[in-house]
Write a structure and sequence with these properties.
Blueprint: H1 9-21, H2 26-44, H3 69-82, H4 85-104, H5 131-139, H6 146-161, H7 165-169, E1 176-177, E2 182-186, E3 192-196, H8 199-213, H9 236-249, H10 258-270, H11 275-282, H12 287-294, H13 298-309
Antiparallel strand pairs: 1-2, 2-3
Helix pairs in contact: 1-2, 2-4, 3-4, 6-8, 6-10
Length: about 325
């Protein structure tokens, strides 16, 4: 990881230690440090404003006490122009977290980002998978070869429980309880939860476990998912690629595992499931996440509800 060199280096290293002590996920730590390092580099060697900008040239600083709100705002503008509003928003959230830590550590009295709003980003609607698409994909993995049995079980888990790609892949054998029909996963923020799945998914997983037991390396690897021809566990990257291969072979184009999470949320709400239960199953802590995922096919659900509740039809 690139590390800012200069007056902010020691503070960034201390923050990294604090993040690790707080048991933040490696992905969160990388994202936060990347954002803070970019900001530190900007503070110590700010680029000139854009030619069409009337803003004064930013003043370089080498002390956190000299960071102002104008520095934060200028950095956001710079990142939007350099990358995108979405990336600038991510960078801002990382900077916010670093400044809050500086306050907690007594390095600052108040955050220079106070009152600064994160850039507005139009979140694209992720296409959900239709029933026909799902049936076509599952039809391609109905054989009894190891790879087909494994892939069917994994696809069923993605669809039936709304779990993230990594939450399915990074499992060991003991994480699956077929009697209770739950899978124990570790979500973001190192938060564990038991994710339920249905009977058809349980049958698919059971068939995989029996097939796995006959695999040449089935007794040497504790990891739940293993490669067809290797002694190694299946990786997150490998699982994403195998799904892409399966979906493209079916003529469905490239499907990403996260589409199953959006599809699960849509199907759950369309069937009348509550938002509270959806949050428990998916591991969301904020209802804003429900709104974000419910956006997918939201108009379709609204039309279906209108067919059921139409005031005109009830006259």
């Amino acid at each position: 990881m690139d590390t800012a060199r200069g007056p902010f280096t020691l503070l960034l290293r201390s923050w990294e230690l604090s993040l690790r002590s707080d048991n933040k996920s490696p992905e969160t730590i990388r994202a936060y440090l990347f954002s803070a390092n970019l900001f530190a580099d900007y503070l110590t060697d700010p680029p000139p404003p854009a030619k069409d900008s009337d803003a004064p040239p930013p003043v370089a600083v080498d002390d956190v006490l000299d960071i102002t709100r104008a520095h934060v705002q200028a950095f956001i503008v710079h990142e939007i122009a350099r990358t995108s509003a979405s990336s600038a928003r991510s960078r801002f959230l990382g900077i916010q977290a670093w400044l809050k830590w500086l306050i907690a550590e007594g390095e600052l009295e108040r955050s220079p980002a106070e009152g600064v709003k994160a850039p507005q980003v139009e979140v694209p609607e992720v296409p959900i998978l239709t029933t026909d698409q799902l049936q076509l994909l599952l039809k391609s993995v109905t054989g009894r070869e190891f790879a087909e049995v494994r892939d069917r079980a994994m696809i069923m888990l993605w669809l039936d429980s709304g779990v993230r790609l990594s939450e399915v892949v990074e499992r060991v054998l003991d994480d699956v309880d077929l009697d209770m029909q739950v899978m124990h996963v570790m979500g973001k923020g190192r938060r564990g939860r038991a994710v339920p799945f249905g009977t058809k998914t349980a049958q698919a997983v059971d068939r995989y476990l029996r097939t796995r037991a006959r695999h040449p390396y089935g007794k040497t690897v504790d990891h739940l998912w293993i490669g067809q021809k290797t002694k190694k566990p299946l990786t997150v990257s490998g699982a994403g690629k195998l799904l892409a291969r399966r979906s493209e072979a079916c003529g469905l184009g490239r499907i990403h595992p996260h589409q199953f999470r959006h599809t699960f949320a849509h199907m759950w709400l369309a069937a009348g499931g509550t938002e509270t239960d959806l949050m428990r199953i998916t591991g969301w802590k904020s209802r804003s996440m429900v709104d974000r995922y419910a956006r997918s096919a939201g108009a379709e659900r609204a039309r279906e509800q209108h067919r059921k509740l139409s005031p005109g039809d009830r006259l």
